[in-house]
Design goal:
Length: 235
């Protein structure tokens, strides 16, 4: 079986001296703020993390949700020493902190690691491009269906076939799909009446992944990214 980026992180990188562990970290715990020093990357062992920014008006925009088996903090690898986004725990998580110097030292002795890392970053760029396209061309229900289904698939446990719990408030979902809180709420209530979703407090429940109609624009590309993101690229 081919080695994945997640395999390398779990089996090798996380065992290195200097790697820190935060466990457990509760919802709303801040990992870093925008413009903080970008001196380390992070690996999510369990739980969810949201990457976001807030405007001067306080409005939040969620750029990406990171799930178990994935990494974030890639601005650490650029020449800009500051963070471009903020990161916060979305679902209770176990996270590892990897200093930049430790990662670079490891990578020097493992050339193939850079290839896997580059493949992971390329997938994120494709995802961002497809997300931008959906924001411009698809209606709110289509956007909700895609992102909710993707998160349900990521959170699915072995043998689970129903009632997938997604720890997102309606406001957070709105900021993820690029819609107003009011429009998102109206659409979610309509979907709930159809039996596509159940609504809870800061929680969306998907009775069945198959019950969510497939998205349209860019779905194949987005699903390819979504499926590969937790496991990373393979070599």
């Amino acid at each position: 079986m081919a080695t994945t980026l997640t395999d390398i992180f779990r089996e090798e990188v996380l065992q290195l001296d200097g790697v820190g562990r935060f466990s457990p970290s509760r919802r709303f715990t801040s990992i870093y703020h925008r413009f903080d020093p970008a001196d380390r990357i992070f690996f999510v062992s369990s739980g969810l993390v949201k990457l976001f920014n807030r405007g001067k008006d306080g409005k939040e925009v969620i750029l990406r949700i990171v799930s178990a088996g994935d990494w974030f903090g890639e601005d650490t690898l650029t020449e800009d020493p500051r963070r471009g986004t903020a990161a916060e725990i979305l679902q209770e998580a176990v996270i590892f902190s990897i200093p930049r110097s430790v990662l670079l030292s490891f990578a020097e002795g493992r050339p193939g690691f850079w290839h896997l890392l580059a493949s992971s970053l390329s997938g994120r760029q494709r995802f961002a491009e497809m997300k931008n396209e959906m924001l411009c061309t698809e209606d709110v229900e289509t956007r909700i269906v895609h992102f909710v289904r993707t998160l349900a698939q990521r959170l699915k446990q072995d043998g689970q076939s129903s009632d997938f719990m997604i720890p997102l408030s309606q406001s957070e979902l709105a900021s993820l799909i690029g819609a107003t809180r009011e429009t998102t709420s109206t659409t979610l209530n309509m979907m709930a009446r159809k039996g596509m979703l159940k609504l809870g407090r800061r929680l969306l429940i998907v009775p069945s992944i198959e019950g969510l109609e497939p998205a349209t624009v860019g779905d194949a590309e987005l699903q390819t990214f979504s499926a590969s993101a937790p496991g990373g690229a393979r070599s």
